[in-house]
């Protein structure tokens, strides 16, 4: 028996290599084709009667074990056919998606693999895949710059042809990578994205157009499940001596297939649930006009598979959508019997949100949201689901340390879901951020803000000026308390902002991107 592991690498770099939304959407479509089309069709070429119901344990020649988010795991009896599968899939990727890094390995297991168990073969394949990728040239070397050649107008790679750009009403040089992405965008991308979001393809097309030309702020959101890798490693079970149990290869394959399908289904259901809840929040707050498009939140799911989610969306819905997605992911995994059988409870997830101006380079925005997720949201994964966000007001390359440093210790990340309801949680809850935002919005009977924006800016500036032994922000806060000593409403707002005062920068950043809370 042989385990075949095929995977796309550098997905986010491939997606965000260009700032053109059409190419971004087309790139996500090409990545999805690995597990949706290429592997399945090449299996059918090798085994004409193959379908997804085939099982190695029932005497079939191959079995599609896992497929999703640019990854496919296949079991094949014959080693030469397993190698041929890798060759055909990677060759197809070179032809149809130049610039996409697709790699595959074959690891024997069972009698032909010196008795190696399937679970161990899977771990070995993961390690070998990394080594193979490191030993071979990356996709960049496919595009030689000598002799001198015109550059692609969108990604700087050597141009392969000239294309008419209707939006710019001119001909532009385009690389083979850009051409493949644009062709994928125009052929089938909208159907897949619309199906994931449960909306008509025309609506999804209009959303992409709006994000390309009409909105001022866009956001990149990246979310990932917590401890899912360890969960799959534990599918062998544990014996009384804390050693792997003797789980048969057939049983292990069934567990992996079942858990993978369950997590993928839960993530997709959570995505749709988050869209619905975001829509309702916007309508309830009266902020839906000019934001919803054909009644749908402007969210484009570039990557949605397994526990992995990457979206581009209107900045005005980013925080609300992400919060609802994390909560829905917890809920759907908690209610799924196959997941509860393994973990006894639901799964949690972490997310990073980078809100940037429309023309800001998306690869910088993605790097920032990934850093927000890994450095802040994942830091509290033992507590529960959490999100961290940043709003970029300048055009410099994003650096999380530089963004956080001026204000002292950050209160980010923010817990959502079940962990946020526990009284013993030591991490900031999302509701606390919402309370600060609402405090900044509160107005008196005369319609004026209880705490003017200039006063809030002075308090935030005090955090920057504060040094060890000299807390400028606290001094300014005390001055305000004395000024408003006879005005209980203003004092109430100050009390909310001061718990803690380090949370003020996030509240001011989120002010324009959170709808008003329900009364």
- The portion of residues assigned to helices is 40-55%
Helix/sheet category: alpha+beta
Multimeric status of the protein: single chain
**CATH class categorisation of the largest domain:** Alpha Beta
CATH fold field value of the largest domain = Alpha-Beta Plaits
Largest sheet: 6 strands, mixed
Per DSSP, what share of the residues sits in E-state strands of 2 or more residues?
A: 15-25%
Alpha carbon gap, first and last residue? 62 Å
- The CATH architecture classification of the largest domain is 2-Layer Sandwich
Number of DSSP strand runs? 12
Task: Write out the strand line-up for the largest beta sheet, numbering strands in chain order.
Answer: 8-9-7-10-11-12
CATH superfamily placement of the largest domain:
Reverse transcriptase/Diguanylate cyclase domain
Number of domains: 3
Low-confidence segments, given as residue ranges, are 238-243
Q: Please state the overall shape, judged from the principal axes of the Cα atoms.
A: globular
| Integer average pLDDT | 89
